[in-house]
Amino acid sequence: MSHISTGVEYSLHCLLYLTRSHAAVEEASVRDLAELQGVPQDFLAKLFTKLAKAELVIATEGIKGGFRLARPANQITVLDVVVAIDGEKALFDCLEIRGRCAVFDDHAPNWATRGVCAIHAVMQAAEKVMRAELKQHTLADLSRRVVDKTPASFGVQVVNWLSDRAENRRGERAATKGSTSRKGG
Q: What separation in angstroms does the CA of 38 have from each of 41, 43, 51, 86, 119?
């Protein structure tokens, strides 16, 4: 079982498409982001609700509607996304097994349970290092890494695909409004 959920991975990939780089747009709908990446739309919608609650994205209204980053990509860390999606859960939950040794007859001596469990201490140190590392990397950093390894044509394709989808929605809604007003008149 992973400590960091699939939801974090989905969220990070989607947020990269909102970073305003040459391979990204300023805003996009959850439906389009889900379809673009082949991820479940309902699940992604729940993730974006969490991202919005954590003030990492802002919902946009109107025909084009969707989400955009709430602040610049260089001010959103990977740790921000992990915490928004998975919460502040600990890497390790110590069950204090050290006090359950059969030779203690249900009465562990003080020396056996004094201080922090040695195993727990190692896990806490590992978690501290992991969180520090995740905090050092921003969406802008990740975006640069992705852009560096992809051909420029890919970024253009993605931007055009997302833009076309938003434009088609505008056209569909305008057509729907026009047919509704003609029916009533």
A: 9, 12, 19, 21, 40
